[in-house]
Amino acid sequence: MEAVLQVRQLNKRYRNGRGVRNVNLEVRRGDIYGLCGPNGSGKTTVLKLATGLGRADSGEVLLFGDDIRERFEPAMRRVGCMVEAADAYEYMSGYDNLKLSARLYPGLKPSRIDEVLELVGLARYAREKAGGYSLGMKQRLALAMTLLHDPELIILDEPANGLDIEGTVELRELIVNLAAHRGTTFLISSHMLDEMERLCSRIGLMYGGALVREGSIGELTSGVRLEQAYLSEIRKAKEQEGIRDDRSV
Ligand SMILES: Nc1ncnc2c1ncn2[C@@H]1O[C@H](COP(=O)(O)OP(=O)(O)OP(=O)(O)O)[C@@H](O)[C@H]1O
């Protein structure tokens, strides 16, 4: 399967000494790829570097085979991003927020706004002010913005954060539907391992700024829960670093 995103030997060190190191990952066409790990493990940093929102110290990011340092704009036209996304304007309706975002994409048909509202289940509330939306509705509006230009790859940073059970299930169904019916590829970061196990076809496990394991759900779990597989990878990583850990993980 064609590689849609390739991250090679990516390094970024913030001034406080934290960041990510030697990250290699590959998202292939049709994947729902889950970048998993606890808070602070480096997921957002990887997503920011992969989408040009931050600059790596070293390493390469290829989107659709092109190095983003050389062909950033053409590559990003094929990507939808919800990474540190700007909030919607609260005093404007959902529809008007989308109309404003649509100006970023010359040639976009106005009917596309109605289509994405329908897709994310906000059509009924399109004329209401975004300020009155629930957190779940605001998340759906942000997702609608990423869908406007019908991207081939959608990158979402912790999209289920703050959603209730119903909202989480709806989000999962939306992602699965887009992947199945439009062939959209997803890269999603989350610390919710159970949800990622249900949703994703491939997983990358991050710990302490490094990608400690990558593989299909089947390869990673083979008979155990993802949570268990993750804890065992962390233990191995700690052993390699020579860190003693007496907890039985
Ligand atoms: N702008 C920044 N300046 C300094 N340190 C940062 C910055 N952004 C992230 N870090 C540090 O880099 C490490 C990785 O953070 P990152 O936000 O990528 O992790 P994460 O897995 O996405 O966590 P979370 O789920 O909490 O967002 C953390 O230790 C964090 O404190």
UniProtKB/TrEMBL annotation:
Q: Which GO terms describe its molecular function?
A: ATP binding
UniProt KW Nucleotide-binding keyword: yes
Family matches, as Pfam families: ABC_tran
Does ATP-binding show up as a keyword for this record? yes
Q: Which Gene3D superfamilies match?
A: P-loop containing nucleotide triphosphate hydrolases
Keyword annotations of the record: ATP-binding, Nucleotide-binding, Transport
UniProt xrefs under InterPro entries? AAA+_ATPase, ABC_transporter-like_ATP-bd, ABC_transporter-like_CS, P-loop_NTPase
The record's PROSITE patterns line, in alphabetical order, gives:
ABC_TRANSPORTER_1, ABC_TRANSPORTER_2
Please give the superkingdom of this protein's source. Bacteria
Q: Where is the ABC transporter domain?
A: 5-233
The record's SUPFAM superfamilies line, in alphabetical order, gives: P-loop containing nucleoside triphosphate hydrolases
The entry's family comment says: Belongs to the ABC transporter superfamily.
Q: What is this protein called?
A: ABC transporter ATP-binding protein
Give the classification, highest ranks.
Bacteria, Bacillati, Bacillota, Bacilli, Bacillales
